[in-house]
Amino acid sequence: MYNERVIDHFTNPRNVGEMPEADIVGESGSFKCGDTMKIYLKIEKERISEVKFQTFGCGAAIASSSMLTEMVKGKTLEEAQQVTNEDVALELGGLPPLKMHCSNLAADALRDAITKYRKNTKTGSA
Ligand code: FES
Q1: How much is the pTM?
Q2: How many folded domains does the chain comprise?
Q3: Residue 58 known to be catalytic
Q4: With contact defined as beta carbons under 8 Å apart, do 66 and 53 qualify?
Q5: Which of 24, 100, 106, 123 is buried deepest, with most CB atoms within 10 A?
Q6: How far is CA 102 from the centre of its chain?
Q7: Around Cβ 45, how many Cβ atoms within 10 Å?
Q8: Residue 50: half-sphere exposure toward Cβ, Cα within 13 Å
Q9: 100, 102, 103, 108: which to mutate for ligand 1, most atoms within 8 A of CB?
């Protein structure tokens, strides 16, 4: 059902874990299955310098989270914001159609983090 790349990111996820010193934490959840994700970002001069994640979800969700963290590390917030769940699925070599919604968790959590960060920096609290 999953290709080798997906299985690799699922069984050996990159950047997994908590980041207590994160500048911002983004969260997402799937209405379809109830799975959730948290993404932790360290941001230096509008650039993502470190990223970690915790995903309580299926194999496709974990693989997507892992791949997304690899894709956005080192990117500016502007660039990272452009990354869609389709981009993540493509980078993984594709996901089964029934599992495409799982890739939304990662993209949504990232967008949540960036939105919160922008809000906080606007009000001067980050
Ligand atoms: Fe819930 Fe995949 S089934 S994220």
Answers
A1: 0.94
A2: 1
A3: no
A4: yes
A5: 106
A6: 11
A7: 6
A8: 13
A9: 102
Residue owning tokens 């999953």: 2
Distance 116 CA to ligand 1 centre (A): 24
What is the domain range of residue 26?
4-118
Higher-pLDDT residue of 59, 1: 59
pLDDT digits (tens, 9 = 90+) for 65-121: 999 999 999 999 999 999 999 999 999 999 999 999 999 999 999 999 999 999 998
For 2-39, what is each residue's pLDDT tens digit? 999 999 999 999 999 999 999 999 999 998 899 999 99
Q: What is the CA radius of gyration of the chain?
A: 14
Residue 123 covered by a domain: no
Residue 3, phi then psi, degrees to nearest 5 = -80, 175
